[in-house]
Amino acid sequence: MPLENLDSALAQRKAFREYFGERAYIRLHDSLDDAPKGTVVLNETVIYGYPQIGRILRLETGLQEQFRHPFHVEEKVDGYNVRVIRYDGRHLALTRGGFICPFTTDRLPDLMNLAVFDEHPDLVVCAEVAGPDNPYLVGHPPYVSEDVRLFVFDLMRQNQPAFLDDGTKEAVVGRYGLNSVTRLGRFTANDWAALQDLVRRFNDEGREGIVLKEEAPGARRAKYVTSNSSIEDIAVTAENMLQLPGEYFTGRILRLVLFMDEERLIPDDGLYRRLGHGFLDGLFRAVEQFKREGKVFHTYRCRFRRRENAEGFVRFLKHALGHGHVVQRRLYEEAGYVVLEFDKDFPKMTGLLGHLMGGGMVFD
Amino acid sequence: MPLENLDSALAQRKAFREYFGERAYIRLHDSLDDAPKGTVVLNETVIYGYPQIGRILRLETGLQEQFRHPFHVEEKVDGYNVRVIRYDGRHLALTRGGFICPFTTDRLPDLMNLAVFDEHPDLVVCAEVAGPDNPYLVGHPPYVSEDVRLFVFDLMRQNQPAFLDDGTKEAVVGRYGLNSVTRLGRFTANDWAALQDLVRRFNDEGREGIVLKEEAPGARRAKYVTSNSSIEDIAVTAENMLQLPGEYFTGRILRLVLFMDEERLIPDDGLYRRLGHGFLDGLFRAVEQFKREGKVFHTYRCRFRRRENAEGFVRFLKHALGHGHVVQRRLYEEAGYVVLEFDKDFPKMTGLLGHLMGGGMVFD
Fold first, then answer.
1. What's phi and psi for B341, nearest 5 deg?
2. What pLDDT, in 10s, does the model give residues B175-187?
3. Can you name the residues that pair with A93 across neighbouring β-strands?
4. Model confidence pLDDT, tens digit, residues A119-159
5. Cα angle A264-A267-A270, degrees, rounded to a multiple of 5
6. Is residue A1 over pLDDT 60?
7. pLDDT (tens digit per residue) in A161-180
8. Most exposed of A67, A140, A269, B101 (fewest Cβ within 10 Å)?
9. Confidence (pLDDT) at A2
């Protein structure tokens, strides 16, 4: 057994047995020994989870405080995290939480050059999948205007928790023409002013932020996001406000204020209005939707190469989110793809709006 | 012992022994038997806590759902809740949490006609104290432009948890010229449209909302607030955002949206901007203050009749909030009063801003 305490983790429901078609696997719902949450075990093979990256809210002090060695800076792309592997002759995409994702797995031939696994069969390609037609999240980078694209940001190996070094990553990405996140160069903590300029430009361009990755021996990492990304996060989740902890929202307000303060940006009418819209528009939409449809939900659309993968994806989501909370709307062919439209319900929103709009009382 | 389990409550720290000068008393930090949190025990006398009133977020359905009998409607005043008693020959004001408040107690002769206790020595006068010069909260009704005023809304008796009926209350208030909250009349659930008109006017006037109190036999109660009050709550607490649960803010956004939807008010640029200002201005001020002063705090001002009460109030606040979190700024005489200016620190704001602005990392 690669992880010694896996049996007891399963018994304590810190790990779960899952199926992808006939293929059984185990995903870690909590960290276990040296394996973070989201680690996947396929028979004797361990695909380590993608470790969480800490956030700094200031560049000038943050770089001085966090980094002793030079670091590489990459664009942080607004999408969902996957790890792509070849296992037992098949290409699989694992979500951050450790599920094999039927959507991403279906689309892998469109998203990247899978020949990379011929030379490196035990490679784990860590990437962001981003674009408007994704089944997980609302919001996408401005430069992905349709469907989804995949952006590589790290490489690992099966059975190993460590990342490959930047030189190896660059070589592999270049040799196989993989689509990388934008690489912004090598910096030191003294370059904070240049990085301030860079993220101010990213902010203007509607891009999310940056990830900083120290070279060995420290290998520390940090992420830093723009104020526009904080407002956008609020705007796309407001319809869903009561499903999320309140700190999701107050934390983003704080990030926004500290970003603007560091960048010496003065709040103007446009910013105040945008934040007001961000908080209110989605919630007004949710109320209208509840009155019209009796529940609050969001409709997602994504395209598949094969119909059975679309159907498998709906089954997968029903398993992951609860059977009653996913409703298939349409499944139709278009331009050589099978397009799936489905609703994801927000049961807490529906429940609380139903209670309150029906005249219910709260003690708060 | 009036409350049987008081000793074990004290042992479990659900009740605390407190002192007001030489006078010892016990306050309930949690409910105990039939006595709510905030109940005060003075020797053999129990002053029951003021019970929490549930909130409705819709009038039309809420009145139908909550009230079977006619109810009285009163203005909800934006201040802090006190219970005023005469005990052992002295007039005392108790806070919602069950402390004897040295500020309100000092000012009682200014705030109400204490002769009411000559005829009714066991009366408990439940009232809101509101105005800009109060030591507890920021924000005040538009019609109290200086100092504080007291608004009576309920009467109880010592050793009894029940409220006196509306007729008795009106008679006592009238006979002693007590300043009552605005009484808006007697309604039934069918009068929801008239109450919608009324709170829309309150919203325009910057008033907080209404409290509905059913006549016996039901005696149910509910409160309902305007959207402007929700924005105002956000604006006056944003400097203090990280001291409060995030749901403080998201709950108010939800109230605002449901109020506007029920009142058929269309959000406009002014509203979006005001909400944006509400969230951002206080937090920008907190950041500036932290950079200038090394900590985040709010300066309060209030006036006392007697200097020893002002000094006692500072000691009281240091005891209630923690010694390091209250700083006396100035104590000076003005127009026959002793004016106290003091700072209340926001240690969580100071701690988190210090961590983040110093370049610290968070995992969120």
1. -115, 130
2. 999 999 999 999 9
3. A84
4. 999 999 999 999 999 999 999 999 999 999 999 999 999 99
5. 135
6. no
7. 999 999 999 999 999 999 99
8. A269
9. 61
**CB–CB of B361 and A66 under 8 A?**
yes
Tell me if B349 sits within 8 A of B243, measured CB to CB.
yes
Residue A343 to residue A299: CA distance in whole angstroms: 4
List Cβ neighbours of B18 (8 Å cut-off, separation of 6 or more).
B24, B25, B26, B27, B99, B100
Q: pLDDT at position B213, please? A: 98
A200: enclosing H helix or E strand: helix A192-204
Tell me, what DSSP letter sits at residue B178?
-
B248 touches chain A (CB under 8 A): yes
Segment A83-87 mean pLDDT: 98
Shortest CB distance from A359 goes to which of B58, B254, B364?
B58
Interface check for A246 against chain B (CB to CB < 8 A): the answer is yes
Q: Taking CB atoms and an 8 Å cut-off, how many pairs form between chains A and B?
A: 176
Residue written as tokens 């609703």?
A343
Q: What are phi and psi of B223, to 5 degrees?
A: -125, 160
ipTM of the complex: 0.94
The DSSP element (H or E) to which B107 belongs, if any, is: helix B102-111
- Contacts of residues A288-297 at CB distance under 8 Å and 24 or more positions apart, as own/partner, are A289/A239, A290/A349, A290/A350, A290/A353, A290/A354, A290/A357, A291/A357, A294/A350, A295/A345, A295/A346, A295/A350, A296/A239, A296/A240, A296/A345, A296/A346, A296/A349, A296/A350, A296/A353, A297/A327, A297/A343, A297/A344, A297/A345, A297/A346, A297/A350
Average pLDDT over residues B141-149: 97
Cα–Cα dist A82/A67, whole Å: 27
Cα–Cα dist A92/A36, whole Å: 19
pTM above threshold 0.80: yes
User: What's the rounded Cα separation, in Å, for the pair A153 and A74?
Assistant: 8
> What does the alpha-carbon distance between residue A222 and residue A82 come to, in Å, rounded to a whole number?
19
How many Å from the N-terminal Cα to the C-terminal Cα in chain B?
49
Determine how many CB atoms are found less than 10 A away from the CB of residue A295: 19
Average per-residue pLDDT for chain B: 96
End-to-end CA distance of chain A: 49
For every residue of A98-133, which 3-state class applies, written as one string? CCECHHHHHHHHHHCCCCHHHHCCCEEEEEEEECCC
Q: So what's the pLDDT on residue B323? A: 82
State residue B33 phi and psi, 5-degree precision: 50, -125
Tokens of A18: 């899952």
Interchain contact A199–B (C-beta under 8 A):
no
CA distances from B289 to B65, B70, B115, B346 (A): 47, 51, 46, 12
Question: Tell me, what's the pLDDT at B2?
Answer: 61
Mean pLDDT, residues A277-288: 97
Q: In chain B, what residues touch A273 (CB-CB under 8 Å)?
A: 269, 272-273, 276
